[in-house]
Amino acid sequence: MPSKSGNVSVRTEGGFLITPSTLPYAVLTEEDLVEVALDGTVLHGHRRPSSEWRLHAAIYAARPEAKALVHTHSPRATALSCARRGLPPFHYMIALAGGDDIPCSGYATFGTQELAEAAAIAIRGRRACLLANHGVVAIGSGLAGAETLAREVENLASEYLDLLQAGLEPVLLTPEEMVAVTAQFGGYGRIS
Ligand SMILES: [Zn+2]
User: Fold this and answer.
1) What distance in angstroms lies between residue 29's CA and the mean position of ligand 1's atoms?
2) DSSP classification of residue 2
């Protein structure tokens, strides 16, 4: 991740292990990670958890299959989120997020339970969503999958913004075409 704007977590038996607040990734060590229960109780660690721990907790509570979560403010996806627009099925890789689009949540103040709930709703039935005027959330069955998906959302947002900027109207894939994409992904192994 290019900046400190974002946070990462991995599910544990008791909750999840999350990056701490106000510590640059460059100096982060394992000891700086904080284990937090889904109710916010700090189980292990001497640092304060990321201010977005509620977002992680709400999504882990809602999505038992999620084992890792990556939250970024990657610039192109964040730009799109500021228009409160998600990504339509303009490219087949949209299916990596688990459906026909990558939705954008409603807006809420960062760090709040309201944002956590808005994110859990937006990502329903998907593995990624945008957060309005804020950034990106991606989940996976492991950290590598969640991180790959977060990067792919950034790539897709970049391509989509380029299309819009060129004044071109993307030709969207049909639901049937997206079903075929998902089947094809299933054939060679899912990424997350
Ligand atoms: Zn954020």
Assistant:
1) 21
2) -
Domain of residue 73: give its range: 7-186
Tally the C-alpha atoms within 13 A of residue 56's C-alpha that lie toward its C-beta: 33
Q: What is the pLDDT of residues 24-82, one digit of tens each?
A: 777 888 888 999 999 999 999 999 999 999 999 999 999 999 999 999 999 999 999 99
Is residue 154, in this structure, part of any structural domain at all?
Answer: yes
Q: How many angstroms is it from 187 CA to the middle of ligand 1?
A: 34
What pTM was computed for the model? 0.93
- CA 109 – ligand 1 centroid, Å: 10
Catalytic residues: 52
CATH number of residue 59's parent domain: 3.40.225.10
All residues with CB under 5 Å from ion ligand 1: 135
The structural domain count of the chain equals 1
Nearest to 137 by CA among 45, 36, 29, 63: 63
